[in-house]
């Protein structure tokens, strides 16, 4: 069913299942009607209903589509470049369609060089007025997690590269951190094993609080052989502003420390 014909029927934006879609070049709303398909890409109407990446030749003229069936909107990549979804999920031309959940979903179309083109999607739920302006509302504070003084210092040392906002940072090894603590807190006895034990306790505690990234080993997949869980912990704490660059001041006399390359 053509999108224009379906829109002409008129459906309230708050009706459950209504799809709102927006890019820098346009926006639309589409009712939850069986078989209705909304297409987006670099091309022009009637090939696409919503333009995205219109000046980028890496974006396909018809790069993706959203089809309403079985009570949900289903996203499919029809372009040559990847589409990136939240939590790093990628979709290829050969990927199976995925259903959208109620609420907001951003997706990014890979373009030329480092360009990524944003498509904002919003599916209205029950008792939902759809996306509304909140320009005058108070800003919601980011969710942060409580750390005691020792935990904060440990994580600042382990995650100092993240707090410097380096490209593709990795945490220090426990051995490298222990060497730095030998200078920073020589009487505290922070050896490699003690640091690992304390960080594991932090991971287990925050795992129960709805932390954004996995913090516990998935036993069904076997124990990972790298420090991916420590990476998840530090990354989540930095992104949430639980750890911030001024925390680096906790590391005194760092000029006298050994090389922290780990």
TrEMBL record:
CDD domains found in the cross-reference section: FHA
PROSITE patterns linked: FHA_DOMAIN
A Pfam family assignment: FHA
Top-level taxonomy: Bacteria, Bacillati, Actinomycetota, Actinomycetes, Kitasatosporales
Source species, domain of life: Bacteria
Species assigned in the record: Streptomyces olivaceus
InterPro entries in alphabetical order: FHA_dom, SMAD_FHA_dom_sf
Domain FHA, first and last residues per copy: 38-90
Keywords: Phosphoprotein
Keyword Nucleotide-binding: no
Keyword Ribosomal protein: no
Protein name in UniProt: FHA domain-containing protein
């Amino acid at each position: 069913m053509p999108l224009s014909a379906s829109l002409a029927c008129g459906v309230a934006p708050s009706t459950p299942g209504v799809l709102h879609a927006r890019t820098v070049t346009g926006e639309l709303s589409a009712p939850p009607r069986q078989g209705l398909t909304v297409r987006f890409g670099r091309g022009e109407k009637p090939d696409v209903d919503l333009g995205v990446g219109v000046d980028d030749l890496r974006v396909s003229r018809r790069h993706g589509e959203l089809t309403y069936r079985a009570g949900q909107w289903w996203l499919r990549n029809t372009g040559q470049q990847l589409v990136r979804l939240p939590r790093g999920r990628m979709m290829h031309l050969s990927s199976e369609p995925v259903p959208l959940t109620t609420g907001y979903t951003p997706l990014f179309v890979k373009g030329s060089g480092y360009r990524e083109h944003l498509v904002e999607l919003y599916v209205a739920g029950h008792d939902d007025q759809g996306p509304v302006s909140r320009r005058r509302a108070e800003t919601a504070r980011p969710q942060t997690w409580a750390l005691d003084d020792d935990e904060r210092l440990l994580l600042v040392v382990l995650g100092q590269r993240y707090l410097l906002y380096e490209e593709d940072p990795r945490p220090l090894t426990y051995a490298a951190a222990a060497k730095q603590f030998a200078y920073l807190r020589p009487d505290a006895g922070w050896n490699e094993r003690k640091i690992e034990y304390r960080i594991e306790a932090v991971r287990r505690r925050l795992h129960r609080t709805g932390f954004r990234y996995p913090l516990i080993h998935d036993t069904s997949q076997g124990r990972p052989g790298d420090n991916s869980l420590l990476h998840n912990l530090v990354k989540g704490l930095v992104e949430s502003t639980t750890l911030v660059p001024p925390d680096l001041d906790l590391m005194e006399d760092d000029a006298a420390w050994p090389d922290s390359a780990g």
